[in-house]
Amino acid sequence: MVEKQLTLEEYVARQGGGWRAVKKAFEEASRGVIRLEDPDPPATPVEYALRPEYSLWYWATCTAAALTIITVVLTSWINAAWLMPLRYILGALYTLFIPGYTLVEALYPGERDLAPLERLALSIGLSLAVIPLIGLFLNYTPWGIRLEPVLASITVFTVATATIALYRKHRVLQESRR
What we know:
The chain has 178 residues and is mainly α. It is built from eight helices and no strands. The chain has two domains: 1-36, no CATH class; 45-176, no CATH class.
């Protein structure tokens, strides 16, 4: 027997409406009792990247990277002491979390591949592994280990792995629709 597919609005209305019905739908979707599907999923990776409900994590990561670069450059050029706490906070996030986070997203693109706490722990652990490797690589280049090459290298790594993760997440979505 094939059940009729309902929209989320129809499902919530059948449950009586309100926040409790929405919460119940979320809990049932989390447990796998019901399956929530986008009726019009993105067909291409570019369309996937342009739909914030799918790629908000990507744009947030790129924005955090851009803000870190801007803050570091500004504090280096104009010697703005009031920006230093922001530089420290963004720099710590940029080196201790974001590179590992993008790598985890690229390695485990499925939403149910890892629990959120596992993603967090792996993100920090992989960042602590990747950053020294980037430094080791830079040590054997003509640029050496200075602020600008380190910042550029981490940015290239982060954006590249985030873009790979975006593509892989789109493929997972496409495969789940089959």
